[in-house]
Structures are given as structure tokens and as C-alpha cells.
Write a structure and sequence with these properties.
The chain contains 5 helices and 12 strands. The chain is α/β, with parallel strands linked by helices. The protein starts with 7 loop residues before the first strand and ends with a strand. Pathway: Protein modification; protein lipoylation via endogenous pathway; protein N(6)-(lipoyl)lysine from octanoyl-[acyl-carrier-protein]: step 1/2.
Length: 245
């Protein structure tokens, strides 16, 4: 007996949370979905009804932290341990794809923890829809953004501009079509922290933020609301909210 696709997605605003704690929480939700899928395989073999898998969308703001993906190079972190301590920045080697990036205050970090069997089983499409949600959000603020061939994430000045600059980094992990990690949109982020790394392993392109592009501070909660709506529309999610304290 086949389960109907479950497009219900529980949205949680985690507020300001240390990276390690958020990673542990993501992993807990991710593992729960994977375990449900393994149980459903056993249920299917027994001819029993399967259990709908859950989906989550987490928004969070992290204290200063650098994260290095499994394909990244540690030399792209330009600080030693003393430098990290001086700048009050944490450092984690993690299990997402991609190289090194920065998370910190003024940045919206989104972690979709989805069973793609509920939506579509296509990682390329998944990444492009995450990018599209950010592109549409930026467009609502009058910021023209897009993609650069061969580079993941969202860029400003992507078409022949002599100074292309990344405004949203992305890096994901998937297993059994379940996703974790996600994207980081620079809204009011302090761009100086990107000077301590080779962002995403790309040395010849700059990083920017909505604040820098617009010349003014931007309302984070408003951006979150707009971004959440675009994600919901593009993925045809049935979002419902669960506020975490």
C-alpha cells in the first residue's frame, strides 16, 4: 500500500542558536525521517500501511561561525586557533557538500529537512528551487540576482559584471532522499568576517549583503516572511508553524 505524498512542512523559527546545537537538532530530525523510511520498507514487505514521513523548514541565526564542508580545504580558513579565539568565532568541519563559509548575526540560515519522496527525487531541481526562492525574494526588494554557471548559490552581477558577488551560499547533504543543511542569505551580515576565509573556495569573487546593496539595514523578520512564502510556493508546501523557544 503506497503512502500519498505528504507536503505538510513544519516551520520552526529557532531564533539565535549556536551552530553546534542547531546541527545536533537538524541531525535528530533528519535521522527520525530516515528511520521512518526504513520502517516503511519493512512495512511494505509485510503488506502493511506505511507511515507518512515528516518534513521541516528551520530558520535560524547563528553566532559567528565558520563551517567547512566535506569537499573543502582547511587552508581556506585564514585564521589559526588563536585568531579564531581573538575574533570570537567557532569552527566546525561538517558533513554537507561545498567548501568553507561563514554564518553570523544578520544572516538568515535556512535548513529544509525534507523527504524529497514527498516532492520530487531530483537533487539538481532541489538546489535550483532553493536558489530561485532567494532570487525571487531579492527581486521583491529591487535587487536583481541570479546564478553563475558551475557555481552553486545566488549571485549579484551574474551576467558579464566585472564584479560578481555572492549574496547567498548553499550546501546540502542528502541520504535516502532526505535533505539537511541548506542556505545562508546575507541580509545585514558583517561582511568583514568573510575576509578571514576563501568563501566557498572561490578566491576571485566578492561577497555582499542586502544591506550593502540597498545602502540601508533591512528588516530581517520581513525578509524571512517573504522568503518563506516563496519556498512554500515553489515546493508546493503546506506550511504550518511551530515556534521554538
Amino acid at each position: 500500500m503506497k503512502v500519498v505524498m505528504n507536503k505538510k512542512v513544519e516551520f520552526q523559527d529557532l531564533g539565535n542558536m549556536p551552530y553546534g546545537k542547531a546541527w545536533d537538532y537538524q541531525t535528530e530530525l533528519f535521522d527520525g525521517i530516515v528511520q521512518t523510511k526504513l520502517e516503511n520498507r519493512r512495512r511494505k514487505d509485510r503488506g502493511e500501511e506505511e507511515i507518512p514521513t515528516k518534513n521541516y523548514l528551520l530558520f535560524v541565526e547563528h553566532p559567528h561561525v565558520y563551517t567547512l564542508g566535506k569537499s573543502g580545504k582547511e587552508e581556506h580558513l585564514l585564521l589559526d586557533q588563536k585568531g579564531l579565539e581573538r575574533e570570537h568565532v567557532e569552527f566546525f568541519k561538517i558533513n554537507r557538500g561545498g567548501d568553507i563559509t561563514y554564518h553570523g548575526p544578520g544572516q538568515i540560515v535556512g535548513y529544509p529537512i525534507l523527504d524529497l519522496d514527498n516532492f520530487f527525487t531530483d537533487i539538481h531541481k532541489y538546489l535550483r528551487l532553493l536558489e530561485e526562492a532567494v532570487i525571487l525574494t531579492l527581486g521583491d526588494y529591487g535587487i536583481k540576482a541570479g546564478r553563475i554557471d558551475g557555481l552553486t548559490g545566488v549571485w549579484i552581477g551574474e551576467n558579464g559584471d566585472p564584479n560578481p558577488r555572492k549574496i547567498c551560499a548553499m550546501g546540502v547533504k542528502t541520504s535516502r532522499w532526505v535533505t539537511m543543511h541548506g542556505f545562508a542569505l546575507n541580509v545585514n551580515a558583517n561582511l568583514n568576517y568573510f575576509g578571514n576565509i576563501v568563501p566557498c573556495g572561490i578566491s576571485d569573487k566578492a561577497v555582499t549583503s542586502m544591506q550593502f546593496e540597498l545602502g540601508k539595514e533591512v528588516d530581517m523578520q520581513e525578509v524571512e516572511k517573504v522568503l518563506k512564502q516563496h519556498l512554500s510556493n515553489l515546493f508546493e508546501m503546506e506550511l504550518f508553524e511551530n515556534q521554538q523557544n
